[in-house]
Amino acid sequence: MRTSLVLLATLTTSLPACSVSGPREPAPALDPIPAAPAAAPAASPASAPGESPRAQPPAADASLGTWRSSACAPRRYERVISLAEDGSFTAEDRVSPCPPQVRCIWSGIIHRKGTFQRSGDTLSLSVADASHGPGGQPFPATLTVDPRTGALVETGGDGAPCPYER
């Protein structure tokens, strides 16, 4: 502690005073800093001779991701659809899932895989592979994007809209 006080006293006595007793001179005027030149737009990646230019990735699509639709007449079970950036989708119709800790012959879930294309507010679905099981309703060929909410909507078998949620 004594060493700290001695050091503090030494520093405060050896530093120049911070106050000025006489008149002050004005600070020198500073030259304004010139504006930086505008950056040139980034060049797209160059292609090797004989190679086609690289395609830019598509703009993000808000409809991508996983969507769930609860029971919606005449479908009495949840349907889950996952849309991927590469234009593929997977879907599950959870017709009658096997309860936990029970051994079932069938899982109770119909799995589908395929591709989709978006044109405006319509997604066209093309199923390439599907598991089979009893009780499933027909899979929709199209989904629409609700322009007000951005959510997916399936038209139910009775013509009523079946909304999906994230």
UniProtKB/TrEMBL annotation:
What UniProt keywords apply to this chain's record, in alphabetical order? Signal
Composition-biased stretches (Low complexity): 36-54
Coiled-coil stretches noted in the UniProt entry, renumbered to this chain: none
| Region of interest (Disordered), residue spans | 16-68, 134-166
Q: Give the compositionally biased regions (Pro residues).
A: 25-35
Please give the superkingdom of this protein's source: Bacteria
Q: Where is the signal peptide?
A: 1-19
Stated name of the protein? Secreted protein
- Say which species the protein is native to: Sorangium cellulosum
